[in-house]
Design brief:
This protein starts with 14 loop residues before the first helix and ends with a helix. It has eight helices and seven strands; from the N terminus they run H-H-H-H-H-E-E-E-E-H-E-E-E-H-H. The longest helix has about 35 residues, at about 85-115. The protein has helices spanning about 15-20, 30-40, 55-60, 65-80, 85-115, 170, 220-230, 235-265; strands at about 120-125, 130-135, 145, 155-165, 180, 195-200, 205-215. A hairpin with a 2-residue loop joins strand 1 and strand 2. Helix 4 (about 65-80) packs antiparallel against helix 5 (about 85-115), helix 4 packs parallel to helix 8 and helix 5 (about 85-115) runs antiparallel to helix 7. By secondary structure, it is an alpha+beta fold. The chain is elongated, with a radius of gyration of 27 Å. Strands 1, 2, 3, 4, 5, 6 and 7 form a seven-stranded antiparallel β-sheet that branches. The protein folds into two domains: about 10-40 and about 120-215, Calcium-transporting ATPase, cytoplasmic transduction domain A, CATH 2.70.150.10; about 55-115 and about 230-265.
Length: about 270
Amino acid sequence: MSTQPLTSHFWAHSSADSLRTLQTSIEGLAGDDAAQRLVQHGPNRLTAKKRASTIGLLLGQFKSPITLLLLFAAILSFFLHDRTDAIIILVIVAVSGLLGFWQEHGATSAVEKLLALVAVKARVRRAGQIIEVPIEEIVPGDIVELSAGASIPGDCLLLEAQDLFVNEATLTGETYPVEKAPGVQPADAPLAKRGNALFMGTHVVSGTATALVVHTGRQTELGHISEHLRLRPPETDFERGIRRFGFLLLEVTLVCKRRLNVAAPGG
């Protein structure tokens, strides 16, 4: 059985509407239904890009056309005995490449740290029975049971809660645990104000709760952050300046070489 799409503003819907939309009940999904949904939605994990080796990542910074052009200019300068120009070009290329390597390596490490936040197993209601399943097998429509110390296995809507406090520092930066309770919040409520919602990667500090899983894997807030961190960081002003200076240096070098060749005897 496939689930109907649920609006991204799930915190603005009542628990009854959400259960109906996700075609589930407070008793949880049947085993066959959960298996079908797992095939439909895929494993509940933040699939990380295969990490290149450190050497491969470093060498990858020097594959751009401008970098190769600058390296060619440096080699040409060495052959023409202009060692000063060659050294300047190589320093520019090295600084630019190392900066790109540092940013990309940092982004890759951040993704791996996000993945490490996810727990291994979760307590789930399946056909009225509470069982433990690997977190990768959690699907939209599952009913999860949470207690102190538990990690939230997906983006969830609270159905029941008692003295529930959750640490959301991973997403909001808030150092103190926030209290959560069932209810309905405005659709435009910022993440920190969604008091009826739980988010993947955060964890329960105290209290107990029953929650409906709405989003899993890359569809969660944590998944969106993970996807964003995989993207190559935008070019910084420093990198832009280095690139422009490289073009200028290359033009000056070629003009000087042309003039020297013309002025040389027999040129």
